[in-house]
Amino acid sequence: MKAKQRLFYLIVIMTTVVLLVSGATFYQLYHTAIHEERDWLANAAQSQARLIEAVGRFDAIYSNDYPEGSRSATLSQITEAHKLYKGFGETGEFVLAMREGDEIIFLLRHRHFDLDKPRPVPFNADLAEPMRRALSGKSGTLIGLDYRGETVLAAFEPVTVLNLGIVAKMDLDEIRAPFIRAGLISAGIAIFFIIVGSIFLVNATNPILKSLKKSETQVRLLLNSTGEAIYGLDLQGNCIFVNSSCLKMLGYEDESQLIGRKAHELINFARKDGKLITAMECRIFQSISEGKESHCDDEIIWRTDGTSFPVEYWAYPMRKNGSLIGAVVTFVDITERKSTSEELRKAKETAENATKLKDKFILLVAHNLKNPFTSIMGFLDLIINDKKDPISEKHANKLQRILNSCRKLHVMLEELLNMSRIHSGAIRPLFKFIDGRSLANAAVENYLGMAQKKGIKLLNMVPERLRLYADPRLLEEVVANLLSNAIKFCRQGDEITVYIPSDHKATIAVKDNGAGIKEEILANLFKEEVKTSSKGTEGETGTGLGLPYSLEIMNAQGGKLYVESTEGKGSVFYAQLPDIKPRILVIDDDQPARLLISAYLEPLDVQIIEAESGKRGLEILGQITPHVIITDIAMPEMDGFTFLKHVKQDSKSNQIPVIVITADDEVNTRDKSFKLGASDFVTKPLVLEDIIPRVKRYIG
C-alpha cells in the first residue's frame, strides 16, 4: 500500500473514530440536558399550577364579591402578573388556556405573536398537543407541536380548581442549538488536528490520546465528586459502572468487585426481616425490564460485610436511540433521617399521651370536686338562711363570702369539665345550617338585662338571613361569653355591638368601647394555663377560663377566635367559622328535571352536584358529603329506594336529609320512602313554592 493510501486511510479512520466519540459524548450530554430541562419544565408547570389553584381556592372563599365571580378574579390576577414576564431563554414561555367547546382558548399573551389577543386553536388539531393533554386532565412532559406548529419540549399540568391547563415549554431547536454549535466547533477542531496529525504522525497521536485521557478523568472526577452513591446496570442487571461514594457506602475496596456482577444479588436481595426479594419484585429491576422510573424510601441495601442500612433510591432507565440499554441507580443513606423521624414520632406520641392524661386528670378531679362543692354550697346556704336558729350577722357575712367563693370555684370546675370534654371528644359539634341573626338575637336578649343594669347600650347589627354552618348550642356559648366579658369591662354610657365584618361573611364579631386589654395580657388571653382574668369596671370577677373554653369550641368547629384591642379604647372579638356553601346532591335520570331543580335552587346560593342514577349517586357520596340529597325513585341501574336504603345504612351518610321526588303519588310509595328514612316527599311536577321551603328547612 502506498504512503498516500496509508495516509488517506489513516485520516478516514481517525476522522471516523473522533466523530463517533464526539457524537456519542454529545448524544449523552444532549439527552442529559433534555432530561434536566424536562424536569425543570415539569417542576415549573406543577409549581405554577399549584400556585394558581391556591389562588383559585383563596378567591373562591374571599373574592365572591368580584363583579364576574371568583374565577374571573383569579384569572385577572394571573393575567396581570404575566404581563411583565418576558419568558425564559430565547423561546421559553408559560401558556395558560381553557377549553371552550371544541376550541382551546389561550388566556395569556403569547410571547411570539398574537400578543394582544391569542388566537384559539381547534381542540382536535395537530397543534398545541401539550395544552390539549393538560386540558384533558393529564400531567407530564412531551416533545411535540405547540400552537405555532413548532417542535417544543413541554411540560403540561391541569389546573383542576379552574378547569384550566398550563404548559411550560421551550423550542427544541433552542435546546439543541448549543450542542449543534459545540459539535460543529469540536468536529472542525478535531478534523483540523487530525489533518495536522496525519502530517506529523507521531506528534499528532500523543495529543489525541492525552485529550481522551483528560476527558475520561474529568468524567470520572465528576462521577466521584458527588456525595450520592451511583451505579449503572445493563439489561441483564449486571453492574457496568460505580462511583466512589457507592463503593464506600457498600464497603467495597475496588470497583472490580462489583462491575460485571449481578447488582441485585449483592446489594438489594432481601428486606430487613430477611425475606428475599426476587428480581421480578425488585423495583430497580422493573426500571430495566419496563423502562420506567422508580423511587423508593422504604427498603434497605446490604453491605459487603452482611450489614444493611435504610436508603432512599431512584432508578432511571437508560436509553440509546430510543432503545432501552439499562438503568442508572442513585441512593443515599437515610439512617439518620429515619432515626430523627422515629424520635419525632415518639416525642409526638409522648406529648399526645401526656395531653390525654392531663385532660383525663382534670376531668376526674373536676368531676369529683363538683359534687362535694355542691353539697358544701347547699349546707352553707341552709346555715345562712336558717330562720329557726339564726347565726350572728358577723358570722353570716363570713359564711356568705365562703359561699360566694365556692360558687366561683363551682363555675370554674364546670368550665374545666367542658374544656376537658371537648379535648377528649366527649363533646362533639353537631353541625347544621343556622340563622346567625336569630342566634345573635337570643344571646343579646339573654344579656340585655345585665347591660341595662350597668347603663350599657347593647346592639345586634347582624343582618337578616345570615347563614352559618356550626353547632348552634356551642356557638351561642361563645357569643354569650364574649357578651358577658364585654359587659364586664364596659362602663355606664358605653356601647356593645354584635355585627358581621365586611371581609369575613361567616364571622360574628363583638365590639365594645370599654376598658380594652393591656398589651402584656393579649398574648396569653386564650391560654388556659395562664391566668389572665382581671376585675371588671364594677369589681366583677371571673374564672379566666371562659375565653380558652370558647377558643376550644371554635377550634372544634374548624374556626378560630381572635381579638383586636387597644387599652382604654375597647376591644373587638372575632368568632370566625369556615364559610361553607350548602352542597345539594340531585339524582334524577331525566336531565331536564335536574336542570329545573338546579334553576329553582340557584337563588339559595348552593352548590349543585348532579347524578343520573342511584349508582352514580353512591359513587359521589364516596368522594364528598352533601348537606341535602334530592332523589327520584324510578331510575335505571339503581332506583331511589335502593339508593335510600344504602344511604341510611351507612354511618357516614345516614344523618343526611333525603328529599324524595317522584311522579308516583301513591300512598304506598310515600309510606315506603319514609320507612326507608326519607326526610320529605314531593310529587312531580315540581312547584317552586313547594320545593324551596322544604330545602330551606335544612340549609337555612
Describe the overall structure.
The chain has 700 residues and is α+β, with helices and mostly antiparallel strands. The protein is built from 19 helices and 23 strands. The strands form 5 sheets. It has a 6-stranded antiparallel beta sheet with strand order 3-2-1-6-5-4. A hairpin with a 5-residue loop joins strand 9 and strand 10. Helix 9 packs antiparallel against helix 10. The mean pLDDT is 81.
Please give the largest β-sheet: 6 strands, antiparallel
Q: Major sheet: order of its strands?
A: 3-2-1-6-5-4
Low-confidence sequence ranges: none
Mean pLDDT: 81
Judged by helices, strands and strand pairing, the structural class is alpha+beta
Please compute the radius of gyration using only Cα atoms: 37 Å
Spell out the key features of this protein.
700 residues, alpha+beta, 6-stranded antiparallel beta sheet, elongated
Secondary-structure topology with pairs:
Layout: H1 3-62, H2 70-82, E1 93-100, E2 103-106, E3 121-122, H3 129-135, E4 140-145, E5 151-159, E6 164-171, H4 172-199, H5 201-225, E7 229-234, E8 239-242, H6 244-250, H7 263-266, H8 283-290, E9 294-302, E10 308-320, E11 323-333, H9 335-384, H10 393-424, E12 432-435, H11 436-453, E13 457-460, E14 467-470, H12 472-488, E15 495-499, E16 507-512, H13 519-522, H14 546-556, E17 560-566, E18 570-576, E19 583-587, H15 591-601, E20 607-611, H16 614-621, E21 628-631, H17 640-649, E22 658-662, H18 667-675, E23 680-683, H19 688-699
Parallel strand pairs: 13-15, 19-20, 19-21, 21-22, 22-23
Antiparallel strand pairs: 1-2, 1-6, 2-3, 4-5, 5-6, 7-8, 7-11, 9-10, 10-11, 12-14, 15-16, 16-18, 17-18
Helix pairs in contact: 1-2, 1-4, 4-5, 9-10, 10-14, 11-12, 12-14, 16-17
